[in-house]
Amino acid sequence: MREFLATVREIRYDLQRNRIAWIDCPPGAIPQAGQYIQAWMMDDFSAPLASTLFPAQITERGFLTACPVPLIWEPRTRLELHGPNGRGFLLPGGTKRLALASFANTVARLMPLIRPALENEIALAIFSEVLPQEIPAEVEIYPLESLPELLTWPDVLILDLPVKSLSQLRHSLKLAPSDHLPCPAQALIYTCMPCTGLGSCGVCCVPAHRHWKMACQDGPVFDLNDLEW
Amino acid sequence: MVTKFDLVFSSSYMNATGMLGFVVNPRHTESARLGAFVTNPISLTRRKPARAPEVISFPGGFLLHTGHPNPGLRAAIQRYSDRWARMEIPVVVHLLCERINEVGSMIERIEKSHSLSAIEIGLPPHVTAATLPAFIQAANSELPLILQIPLERVSGMVEALEKINSNQILSAISLGPPRGILPASDERLVQGRLYGPAIFPQAIAAVRLLANLGIPVIGGGGVYSLSQAEMMMAAGARAVQFDTVLWRGHIPDQGGVLKFTPPV
Predict the structure, then answer these.
(1) How far apart are CA B230 and CA A113, in angstroms?
(2) Which of A111, B69, B112, B130 could form a disulfide with B49 if both were Cys (CB 3.0 to 4.6 A apart)?
């Protein structure tokens, strides 16, 4: 596993009052959309668990975290990063209409998809129960509850889905048990991934057809067809 | 003279079960050596993940509830025995026994694999000090046998362990993580294994208790640095198992870090 040194450049609060951070790090350490990296405070050898970081914004110098960071982190805190890990989002070529839907309490993990989509002239809509911030004017924003009515609009659907929401997804999308989605869908299954795949500890198991998959190493982004939902 | 009860490892450090998978992940590319590799727990039949797995933090550690998903003994042997045989260090398979009457057949099957150096058996929750001798008798093996006892059950088992130790059936006792209960984010109470630096004082006390009785003990629990491992050895442990600190990839110490290896 690749290890990098990094520094907290800035601490800020998002609209939901989550304490997030800009991380300065080498380019090789920057997770791509949907990927994650494990962060430990340098010199804190008694931390029982890593902080799992997803990117919300990516620059050449580093990334803005999508998830809250520990209260002990301050600007100039030195970090040890392990990763990037896992399978991220992959926008299929030829995508014209992209729907990003978050069933979580943040849209931040989907945000790194916005700029590349707009650069490729892909029409973009976000479905969420929380208000995203710093969204370009070209992006349409809808409440999550309107997603079932607009499911035929996108040609690719991308979801941020806490693992506990997976079993209710069909109900949330108002799909009958035999119904299929009208377009391909990728889902970031958001769950704890403490072992990063090194231990196959099983905390992040996701139900798949006749088996299970582990978000830490098989995901965290899955083709929705590969999962049982 | 080395007997079948002797465990001989090139280093006193190994992983605890559940920390490095069924075979070591090739992404663990650093090159120090573990003295032995302990597999994730393997049950007689396939176990699915817990319906609602959880990681719940508390000051000094965290509770882990997973259900110990694994493919079952037959599938694990088919999948992994060739890779166990190719590993350069001794492999200790950890058996997750749920009933006394299945332990004998599990051991019989695993002994045929010829790629293992020892067996570690997790103590089933329903086995008490009174039924422990019968359980150990049923676990008769040609391979060295390590019994893993959760930390919080050690003191209640001491007399029974002393008697069993005098019969020379077990090669060592290893210390498993204590169990606890914490509320999840939805306020449901979740039972699970406890890990983290907060466990260390309880672990070292258990090591000393067993070692003072002459029971060979493999220490473990809350060991997050080499100096703590050395403290555990000084308290009487014959070897030390590292647990979740291995997920960081190295064991820190004041004099530097011990990089942990992928035994392949």
Answers:
(1) 49
(2) B69
Q: Can you give the pTM of this predicted structure?
A: 0.90
Tokens at residue B60, please?
A: 């000094």
Burial B48-73 (b: 16+ CB within 10 A, else e): ebbeebbbbeeeebbbbbbbbbbbeb
CB A161 within 8 A of CB A133: no
A193 Cβ contact partners less than 8 Å away, ≥ 6 residues apart: A36, A52, A85, A86, A203, A204, A215, A216, A220
**Distance of residue A46 Cα from the nearest chain B Cα, in angstroms:** 6
Packing angle of the helix pair B200-212, B154-166 (nearest 10 deg): 30
Which residue, B206, B178, B205, B203, is CA-closest to B192?
B178
Residue B141: half-sphere exposure toward Cβ, Cα within 13 Å: 30
Whole-number average pLDDT of chain A:
92
Question: Cα(B227)–Cα(B174) distance, rounded to whole angstroms?
Answer: 19
Question: Using an 8 Å Cβ cutoff, are B64 and B55 in contact?
Answer: yes
CB-CB neighbors (< 8 A) of B27 in chain A: 1, 197-198
Three-state DSSP state, A169: helix
Find chain B residues with C-beta within 8 A of A192's C-beta.
54-55
Cβ-Cβ contacts under 8 Å for A2 (sequence gap 6 or more): A28, A29, A82, A83, A84
Residues facing B122 on adjacent strands? B96, B148
Contact A214, A197 (CB under 8 A): yes
The predicted complex's ipTM stands at 0.87
pLDDT digits (tens, 9 = 90+) for A145-191: 999 989 889 999 999 999 989 989 999 999 888 888 889 999 999 99
> In this structure, how many other beta carbons lie within 10 angstroms of the beta carbon of residue B262?
20
Would you say how long chain A is, in residues? 229
Q: Strand order in B54-58's β-sheet?
A: B54-58, B61-65, B189-195, B179-183
User: What is the distance between the alpha carbons of residues B255 and B216, in angstroms, rounded to a whole number?
Assistant: 29
| CB contact set of B54 (below 8 Å; sequence gap of 6+) | A192, A203, B63, B64, B65, B184, B190, B192
Nearest to A190 by CA among A164, A170, A163, A169: A163
- Identify all chain B residues contacting A202, using CB atoms and an 8 Å cutoff: 49-50, 53, 66-69
CA dist A98 and A4 (Å) reads 33
Q: What tokens appear for B11 in the block?
A: 């280093």
Pull the structure tokens for residue A205.
């198991």
Low-confidence spans in chain B with pLDDT less than 50: 1-2, 29-31, 255, 261-264
Q: CB of B236 within 8 A of CB of B192? A: no
Q: What's A92's DSSP letter? A: P
